[in-house]
Each structure stands twice: as C-alpha cells, then as structure tokens.
Specification:
The structure is a single chain. By secondary structure, the chain is α+β, with helices and mostly antiparallel strands. It has one domain: Immunoglobulin-like (Sandwich). The chain contains 2 helices and 7 strands. The protein has a 4-stranded antiparallel sheet. The longest helix has 26 residues. The termini are far apart. Keywords: Copper, Disulfide bond, Metal-binding, Signal. GO terms for molecular function: electron transfer activity; metal ion binding. This is Basic blue protein. InterPro entries: Cupredoxin, Phytocyanin-like, Phytocyanin_dom, Plantacyanin.
C-alpha cells in the first residue's frame, strides 16, 4: 500500500511540473498594440523598431470598423502594396489579433491608397 502512495505522489509531481512548464511557455507570449494609442493608422513603418518580437506574440490592430482592414502579405506584397494572396484572410473587426510566426511578418491595409500612403508594417519575429 505504501508503494501505491509513492507512485501516486511521483505521478502528481510529474503532472505538476508539466503544467508549470506549459504555463511558462504560454506566459512568454507578449501582446503589442500596433501604433500604440493611435492604433492601426498611416505612417507606422518605424513602429516595430526597438521591439523584440517572438513567434507566438500577438499583434492587436485597433481601428474604426469600415475605415481600414489588415491583410498579411509576402515581402513583394508589402513593397508593392499588392499581391494579396487569393486565400488571404482579410481582418476587418477593428480589434484584430494576429499571432506572429517565426520570420518576417508583413501587414498592409488593402483599402485603396492606404498602403501606398504608409499603412503597412513589417515585423521580424525570432
């Protein structure tokens, strides 16, 4: 009977350590509000500078519904303000949350003229 209690205790300790490990991994994800108080707007290309983004971090895009949107594009789409993938998700809630992937993450507004006017950002996540 003492052996059964010992095994149960070991199992409980292992389970506890696994839960703590999982919690620590989730706790490392940071949330960034794109543009700060100004939100998702024009002229934000320098906004990512000085920030240490990691894969799994979340970008929050705040803007007036119907005034803008957010679309993830490739590097060419970012530079040319075009090449929106056919299956690209167009975020338009006004409070969009997008999880970063490792590498370069490019976001633009596809409303006519907005990207060309500087409504785009590139974020490098390690």
């Amino acid at each position: 009977m003492a052996e059964g209690r010992g095994s149960a205790m070991v199992a409980a300790v292992v389970l506890s350590l696994m839960l703590v490990s999982l919690h620590c991994q989730v706790a490392h994800a940071a949330t960034y509000v794109v543009g700060g108080r100004s939100g998702w707007t024009f002229g934000l290309s320098n906004w990512p500078r000085g920030k240490n983004f990691k894969a799994g971090d979340i970008l929050v895009f705040n803007y007036k519904i119907g005034a803008h949107n957010v679309v993830a594009v490739n590097k060419a789409g970012y530079k040319g303000c075009s090449n929106t993938p056919r299956n690209a998700k167009v975020y338009s809630s006004g409070k969009d949350q997008i999880r970063l992937v490792k590498g370069l993450n490019n976001f633009i507004c596809t409303f006519p003229g907005h990207c060309d006017a500087g409504m785009k950002i590139q974020v490098l996540a390690s």
